[in-house]
Specification:
The chain is built from 31 helices and 36 strands. The chain has 932 residues and is of the alpha/beta class. Helix 4 crosses helix 10, helix 6 runs antiparallel to helix 9 and helix 24 packs across helix 26. The longest helix has 18 residues.
Length: 932
Amino acid sequence: MNRTARHTPQPGPIPLKRWPGVARDQSRSLTVLSTAPVDAGTERTWHFLDNLAELERSGLEPVGTILCVHGNPTWSYLWRDVVSAGATAGSRPWRVVAIDHLDMGYSERTGTDRSLEDRIHDLGDFTRALGLDENAGPEGVVTLSHDWGGLISQGWGAEHPGLHRGRIFTNTALHHPPEEKIPGALRLALHPAIHRRGTESTTTFLDVTLSLHRGEWDPQVKATFREPYRTAADRHGIANFVADIPLDPSHRAHPHMERIARAVAEDDLPCLVLWGPADPVFQQRYLDDILERNPSATLHRFDDSGHLVAEDQDIAPVMFTWLDEALLGQKPVIDHHRITREKDRRSSPLALQYRPMTTELDERRDDESLAVVDMGPAHKSAKPTSNGKHASAPLATIRRQLSWRELAESVDHTAEVLRDLGVQAGTRVNLLVPPGSRLTTLIYACLKIGAVIVIADTGLGIRGLTRALKGASPEFLIGIPQALLAAKTAGWPGRRVLAGTGHPSTLKFLGAEAGIESHQVSRAQPSTPWNAPQPDNVAAILYTSGSTGPAKGVAYTHRQLSAMRDAIQNTYNLTAGAGLVAGFAPFALLGPALGATSVTPDMDVTKPKTLTARALAQAVEAIRATVVFASPAALMNVVATKDDLGEREREAMKRVGRLLSAGAPITIPLLEDVATICPNAKLHTPYGMTECLPVTDINLDQIREAAADSDPENGVDGAGTGVCVGTPVYGARVAVVPLDEDGRATGNPTYTQNVTGEIIAAAPHSKDHYDRLWWTERASDTIPGWHRTGDVGHFDASGRLWVEGRMSHLLSTPTGILTPVAGETAAERITGVRRAAVVGVGPWGAQVPVVVVERDSAENPNGRVRIKDGPAPAALVRAVRSAVESETGVRVAAVLQVREHPTDIRHNSKIDRPRLATWAASVLSGGKVSKP
């Protein structure tokens, strides 16, 4: 490409009109003498944003300088919030300088075709002319970059090693392997027939880039981004930037890219990465490369953001907090690659009793008794007898079963296969396999060799799984055929391996390189026993249900997984040899660690409502189980189908001595219905979350006792506001952080009765950290050693914990903060109401409570009366209003009804209240009534 002048330079004055979010004295210009090869010795006029004037007015001495380098086709306006926050966001002020590259923004249009090498010279010329090379502040310069600004800023950094003290990346790339294609959008922009027309003659490239913003544009802000690029001459720099993408080793920019990428890998500068994964340009491979070159980097993924992450999110608080901790030493930065919980282990002697998860399996490798059983499709229900009762039902189908010896041998063999395929300690392995013996084998094989298990529920759906898996970025993906086909279609990361056997043609079709059960180990493997992973190595990344936002990866160490097993074993007195039904996915991996024989019922564990009473009973019968794990949604369907049980199945259920249901609160009526199916069982409803499971426990008898204690007539007025979840399990501690008048948890942790606040939990089995979500982890760990659950609750006079809702579900009414669960519980006592949700409609501080009820399908057994979404019938409105007001004192503004509440995608139990609130507001404002 011709590098000579294309038109007369037009420096012109910097516009004096105000831009949204930019103070008038932040917009500055500077004349700089160029040393770039393309125009050495020429004076060029730069435009930049700078907060120095504000610092000087306030008498503040900056601790250092943040040098913000934009990419193509944005300009310094991208960093306006960071510029404005520099003086106040952190504990110490920073000078923030955001440049416009030459030929971009409001800097001079030089008429040249500037290369990567030129632009690195340009940036050096600018910092020298501005005086930053001599007076950047005690902490030197931290670069903040986006898009192709990443390479330019790091090229500058490589030439200023004593001045460059840290780097912050938003979506960018440091390197592109020549054997890989560049993203399709850039290939299209580089096509000879499109390049100039798409980037310079028209605004197409600019339009496409701005369309990548994930939020609602303020029209003035969008117009401001476009202002500097109104004419083709204004857009020459955009075309030049695209043309300078190093496609292959012959490109002029390629050697400089290689040099810069090596330099970044060789230094040890503090690094923060703020990433928007929904980016069609800078895809996961570029993030992986950045992390590989910066192994100690702090990463936060904004899962609902994309290419313009600095526009999608307010990144200033995140980066200035990181600067406080990483550069100024205000607080030690948590290293998520080597994180431990020393403070927990010092404070809780229970956590010191580490026993690896694989110990029980190793000790029982000569045991021929059953270890795991998979149930096949249940037989059709027997025909009813003449008296209308069911005859004795046939035995369930056992699809697969393994003894302890067979399981141990299978685990060892699978571990050998995994190591032969390249899985090592620390390798991330995503398992997309339904709960059962096959998944159990894979989990324990990974634990043996120290691989990190990544488990994301298929109930997240394709979009949710794609977000989760790209976030975890596993090196291997092991799955059933359906999962491998989805991975092939959706482009999920990881080398694909079939969980089973497959003909070579099948493997090729699935894009799999091997089948776990048919792969021939090609080289000698070390003999067992295996080299055990260290207790504080990360063992698993388990994804949350996604009911409170994008699913988060929760990292557990081997020590913490073992502590989870110990908490369950000691809380529920589960001894080796017990038989348990694993109808709740999070507990599916615990059977062998507990020494218990486990059976997976005939159901889709990702869809709890598929568990029927007959399937549960037949699973109990298959191993003579005494313990059942199931979710609330699963139990609802078990109760709904209990009439299908035959006499033999009813007898089998009498054997169950303990039933645990976690995932969401359960009402007393539902538990009492379950008790009719399991008449000899203690019915427990442990409270917890993916980050710490379980936290507390309570059984039906204790719930009844708590309900009686909460009756105002018994002198404990208000103690029962919410759902009682009992007392802490083995090894756990619970407290609350009181709410202020604005609904924020700002008080000191307390155990005082009847004080409502955010529930916090501490336990040896609490999570290690959120995976690649530094800002989220920091917010959840602001009280050292405690996890902030996001739930709201209080203690009663007996020290029992009551859950009143989520922090995000609080209502702010004219009379104060209102929690939703008490009103929901009152509404659910009304005949015909299956579930209820109390949501706030209106602005914060002036919200009114609205109850949205889900009608009981038993009201409409023959489908003669159709339940319509929208306003509830007058009689139901009166009943709900009366019940809620009499039990809570809250006046309900409106009662609406739906056929089915929108729920979370894993448990089908957690109601999506924000979605219901939006729907209710629309209905009450006269909008079209649609499905919520």
